Amino acid sequence: MGKRIAIVGAGALGGYVGGYLTRQGQDVTLIDMWPENIEAMRSRGLELDGVTPEEKFTVNNLRTMHLTEVQSLSKEKPIDIAFISVKSYDTEWATMLIKPYLAPDGYVVSLQNCVNEEKIAGIVGWGRTVGVIASVISVEMFDAARIRRTAAKGGDKHTVFRIGEVHGVITGRVRELVDMFSKIDSAKAVTNLWGERWSKLTQNGMRNGVSAVTGLTTPQCDLNAGIRRFAIQLGAEAVRVAQALGYELEKVGGIKPGLFALAAEGNADAMAEVEQHMIARAKENPRADMQRPSMAQDIGKGRRTEIDFMNGYIVERGRALRIPTPGHEKLVDLVRKIERGELDVSPCHLGRGTT
Q: Which of 101, 115, 198, 352 has its CA 20 to 30 A from that of 252?
């Protein structure tokens, strides 16, 4: 018999992965806290879209549950793999929700932004905690049970799913997950989960809040000289904190992480190389007018953001190490003010210059 899979949080990423896994024939149960989303999946299926015609399809006959229905899992075969795919501020309760229904050798996978493995391990134990990083996937739930991806599939050019144990050993369950995810997009087992997490955190720290505050897409931000330089400063600060913590970072947006630090610290050659790369990628993006990261989507929908778990987390770790992070502090303050309605979204908050 196949593994029983539960996905707690059937939003953009959880729904996207759950839809593909269901289409593979996996035994998947999608659990969500938005009633309209579950009802729409039940009535018309889950509609997925991407940048190619082959990525547009509807997944029908999904197994779904409202939060109030989760207790019925006690009458069924236990869950072997539970994916937590909620916002970071919902991690603990979502993990507690699914914990009673795990099989004795069942485990929990963080399929989220930010660094949440420690929170999950605090509830189910380190031995039952695995991480999956979704790198440059750009998925958006623009309506109930409707998800679109605005970034091209990685294929052999970019590995989208990086899967690893917290201790770095490539285990059987990591290989099992790689096999599942490789049928969705490119996937690999990693021995450097924490370095991968911090590389993604650095990338998110440069992108999410900046787009949320300015109202611009990521490519539009990169084509604005003032905003681009601010993003480079954010990258530099995150890199210095990660290095002080002892993490070995992977490339961030295709750029060696040390270049961000050198650029922000006055190295003209490094700045030129970083800017050239960012501008080129922005100009090559076929969906430059659509690619808004999750935090910008949240601001647009009036939802709470993950700013405290993204840029705020970098600030917190930096303070503990006495490493200044003024760019991240500024961004946290701006996002909070916009959430409270004290400021309107505008590019003027971070820069007016153009390339």
A: 352
Q: Which of 156, 255, 262, 271 is nearest to 203 (CA)?
A: 255
Backbone dihedral angles phi then psi of residue 303, each to the nearest 5 degrees = -95, 160
Query: In this structure, which long-range contacts are made by residues 72-76, counting pairs with CB atoms below 8 Å and at least 24 apart in sequence?
Result: 73/6, 73/29, 73/101, 74/100, 74/101, 76/4
pLDDT for the residue numbered 102: 98
* pTM of the complete model beyond 0.90: yes
Residue 240 belongs to domain spanning: 196-349
Rounded to an integer, the average pLDDT of 28-35 is: 97
Cβ atoms of 217 and 208 closer than 8 Å: no
| Distinct helix (H) and strand (E) counts, the chain | 13, 12
In a domain, 327, yes or no: yes
Distance CA 114, CA 177 (A): 20
Task: Report helix, strand or coil for 351.
Answer: coil
* CA proximity to 239, closest of 256, 219, 222, 218: 256
| Interval 134-170: pLDDT, tens | 998 889 999 999 999 988 898 777 899 999 999 999 9
| Structural domain count of the chain | 2
Mean pLDDT of 181-191: 96
Contact (CB, 8 A) for 213 and 345: yes
Residues 35 and 134 in one domain: yes
**Residue pair 150/142 in contact by the 8 Å Cβ criterion:** no
Asked if 30 and 137 sit in the same domain, the reply is: yes
pLDDT score, position 285: 74
Same domain assignment for residues 73 and 124: yes
Confidence class of residue 288 from pLDDT cuts 50, 70 and 90? low
Cα distance between residue 40 and residue 209, in whole Å: 30
Phi-psi region of 87 (alpha: psi -120 to 50; beta: other; left: phi over 0): beta
* 112 three-state secondary structure: coil
User: Which of 157, 176, 191 is the last residue before a domain boundary?
Assistant: 191
Structure-token pair, residue 302: 């009036």
**Average of pLDDT values for 288-308?**
88
